[in-house]
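Entry type: protein chain
Record version: 2
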Amino acid sequence: MKEYFLFFGISLSIIMACHTPQVVQQTPVPKTPVPPTQPKPYAETNALYQQQVQKYAERLSQTPLIDTFGLAQPPFWVGTVNFNMRRPNFVIIHHTAQTSCEQTLKTFTLQRTQVSAHYVICEDGTVHHMLDDMLRAWHAGAGRWGNITDINSISIGIELDNDGKEPFAEPQMNSLLQLLTNLKKAYSIPTANFIGHADIAPTRKDDPSVYFDWKRLADNGFGHWYSETTDELPADFNPSMALRLIGYDMRDTTAVQTVFKRKYLKKVDFRPLTESDKKVLWQVARKFW
């Protein structure tokens, strides 16, 4: 009997040895280092944006409405159910006249500068949407177009990263055209209402510069251009009246003529309009009839 148990024990040991799973030594997988969280460069000014928006939201939610004129009020308030947000009807194009996109972003996030825009388009085509389209940016200043004297209240401002001394980059122009397409569709902005900062402020501004391709914009439905200049001028053609018809503020005729020639003739010229200049003006003005 002892021999039996001895034989059984030896056999069991052999079987277990044959079936005991091998323990495989695994090489530990190195952990991917997690980069430290980078602080958002405009976190502080973004918070200021939120605070300002919240103030306006609180005002809009007040009922009854704030008494603006101090007139006699009825014993009850009635709010209309038919309203929406005001929509922009113009687009004003600028060049930044600064050295980089980053410099412009900093300028527009410093409260002391008192300037801003809805969009900034960098040279590489990156688009920074800095302000809701329905809100009023401070980009046009003391501009005038036709009878409109508060351009900021009815327009969207677009700043192109360009110092005014060089052509505009192709990626930047492509982004601009796409943005203008979206804005025109979203707000039904008329073709004639895509203009430049110099158009509304001819005595102060020259942007976008002589390098800006206004014809390319017009070919895509943003602004008007002339087709041919072979027609004879009407005998009673008045250049000042034609410029006024387009929308220019004619308090300084020389400044306006200079802006017109920079935009449509691609030249910086402070002299009076020539006969060929007048033919171009005639063709452009006819688009505004």
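Comment: The chain has nine helices and five strands.
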